[in-house]
Structures are given as C-alpha cells and as structure tokens.
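Per reviewer request, we include the raw input and output of the structure prediction for the construct analysed in the revised manuscript.
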Amino acid sequence: MRVLSLFDGISCGQVAFERAGIHIDSYYASEINKYAISITQKNYPKTIQIGDVTTVNGLKDIDILIGGSPCQGFSFAGKQLNFIDPRSRLFFDYVRVLEEVKPKYFLFENVKMKKEYTDIITKHLGVEPIEINSALVSAQNRKRLYWSNIQGITQPKDKGILLQDIIHENTDYADWRELSRYIVPFDKTLQILDKEVQRGKIGYFGKDSRANRVYYIHGKAVTLCGEAGGGAAKMEQYFFGCITPDRVNKRQNGQRFNEGNKFYTLTAQDQHGVLTEGYIRKITPIECERLQTLPDNYTEGVSNTQRYKMLGNGWTVDVIAHILKMLK
C-alpha cells in the first residue's frame, strides 16, 4: 500500500499500519518539525520525507491519505480560534491534496469541536465523522473525531486499561523532588484527601483547573496535547511532591492521578503527575508513550520537552490501527 501522511509528526500512522498488519510499499510523510522527523527516521528509515504540506503536489497512485491538521485552534483546551487560527486553516491543504491525489481511501482526525466547525469539515470531506475515545484502548481519555470513507468503522472494544497498567516503575529518585513553596500543613493534606477522594481529585497546583488537579491511578489519564506556546509551563521542569503520613509539613501540587484512573487529555502546558504508594511525581515520557499506545522509548533521542510535545501532538496508535483493520 502506498501511503501519504500529512502533518505526519512522529509517524504514529506507520506504527498503526504495522499493528493492523497492513504492508506498506511506500510511505510519504509531510512534516516540518525537525525533532519529529528525526524520531520518524530513527524508527522508520525508509520513510520518504516530502516537506511542507503547503508545497505537496504531483504525487500519484496513492492508496490512502491520512492526517490530522493542527488542532490547537479547534481544541477546547486551546483558545478556540477555529478557522481564524492559521494552524487550523491548514485543514484546507488536506482538502486540496485529497482532491489532487484522489486516493482510494482517506482518514482525517481532529479534536471534538463546536458543531458549526465540525459541519465545515464534514461538508468539505463529504462524510460524517465518528467519535472515538482513546479510553477504550488506552489509559487516556482522548475524544477525537475521525472522518473517513473506510467502510464499517465501529467502536473499539473496551480493553479496560487504567493508569496503574501503564505506570513505569523504574523512575529516578529525582522525579520525586519537592517544590518547597507549595508546602501545606499535614492536617490540611488529610482534609483535602478526605474531601476529594470520592471525586478522584485530591488537590491542585496553583489555580484549581482541570490542568492542575491530582487524581487517583485507578482510572484514566488526561488527553495528551502538544500545545506549548506563550506562557505555557514546561512539563519537564515540574516535580511533584510526596504525601507522606509520617511527616508533619507536606504539600500537594501539580496534576496528579491515582493509578486506577483514566488520564485526562495531556497538554504540554499542564503539570501532570501520578499518585502511587503515597508519593506523587510527574508523568514520564515512557508513560506518555504508553498513553498513546506507542512502544516504550519510541521517542527516545530528543529532549524530554520535545518528547512530551510530540506525544501530545500524536495519535493514539491503537485507535488508528482499529480503523485501518477495516481495510483488510
């Protein structure tokens, strides 16, 4: 199969084809981020990189076009600028290439958005989207819309994966470092735990928002997202402290999740963490890879900052593989 992938990122699409058992004869990737390209070429050195999506033309005999244009303008976690945002307007380059290449199949992915914007995409692609939550196949709550002319797409079977199933045990002690300015009294810590445990949240860092809350690991994770512009926090710079019953002065900070929860949508500006055996720390790059159902260390070779960002921009591989299996 000859594949053209626009906004290819770290080539989650290639992993999905491989996992779906579909042989790729040629894989053309349109991507401009040098870090993402380096990860793709490390894992799939035969990938044919073709550069900026705005200059893609002249490709023939493509069997399937895949892609998901940058979602920050549409995302409920972003500024919701929608088609005014130049990143979201890249969708029309997907439409242009689709009309020029005329592949047998196409697949387009994007965030859940307002109906008026969903309808614009539907009008241009000619098919209604199907909404799939990555929580069915991973430990991450990630609702996405998929437009495709692939027939028979269904909801994946719920695998029942929770945060506790993807926790990486081999983390350095440094990952548990304290941020002393967020110390709270021990009795207040207990009050927070008693008050919030039924809702899953046990505390927050700075402003009490979804991006900064603490959750238990017996559920799902937040959605990974790659937006990291403006005053966004750098995830790798935040350390998440301990809740230790034998210490009088301890505090809670950051977004934390108990291993039995589903993780919410991860974003690069959030300070995500997990609570396990009484300690709290940030989510590791390997755990982020597992949230996206990628192989461990798939993104190894660049800084953690870039790993978090690229993983947030990527696809949940097992969702894409589920869709692609309909081609067999």
